[in-house]
């Protein structure tokens, strides 16, 4: 979740990085002369690293959209306090 004040710039940068990745992909496929395993390993290792890094992101379920950069910085820090103050729902 990007704060409102930087949302357009952040989405633009994310889109630009996706395009850079699509431009680099053919060069990774060209690693075949160095070994048949190089390209599949490169295409497999980087997504796994990205998935592991995503595990470190704070949970945003039931959170309101962030309006300021300060709220974005405090999102992961106040997560434990927010969980303690959430009332239980009656079934």
Structure description:
The chain has about 90 residues and is an all-alpha fold. The protein has a domain at about 1-60. The chain has helices at about 5-30, 40-55, 70-75, 80-85. The longest helix has 23 residues, at about 5-30. It is elongated. The model has no long low-confidence stretch (mean pLDDT about 80).
Summarize the structure.
By secondary structure, this protein is an all-alpha fold. It has a domain at 1-60. The chain is 57% helix and 0% strand.
Beta-strand percentage? under 5%
Count of distinct strands: 0
Between the first and last Cα atoms, what is the distance in angstroms?
A: 30 Å
What is the string of SSEs from the N terminus onward? Answer: HHHH
The biggest sheet amounts to: none
Shape: elongated
Oligomer: single chain
**Mean residue pLDDT:** 80
Radius of gyration: 19 Å
* Percentage of residues in helical conformation: 55-70%
Task: List the total number of helices.
Answer: 4
pLDDT below 50 for ≥5 consecutive residues: which ranges?
A: none
Keywords:
91 residues, 4 helices, elongated, (apollo) hypothetical protein, transmembrane helix, transmembrane, MFS_dom
Strand and helix map with partners:
Elements: H1 7-29, H2 38-54, H3 69-74, H4 79-84
């Amino acid at each position: 979740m990007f704060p409102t004040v930087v949302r357009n710039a952040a989405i633009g940068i994310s889109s630009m990085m996706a395009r850079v990745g699509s431009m680099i992909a053919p060069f990774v496929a060209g690693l075949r002369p160095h070994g048949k395993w190089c390209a599949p390993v490169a295409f497999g290792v980087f997504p796994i690293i990205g998935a592991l890094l995503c595990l470190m992101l704070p949970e945003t379920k039931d959170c309101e959209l962030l309006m300021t950069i300060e709220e974005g910085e405090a999102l992961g820090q106040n997560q434990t306090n927010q969980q303690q103050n959430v009332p239980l729902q009656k079934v």
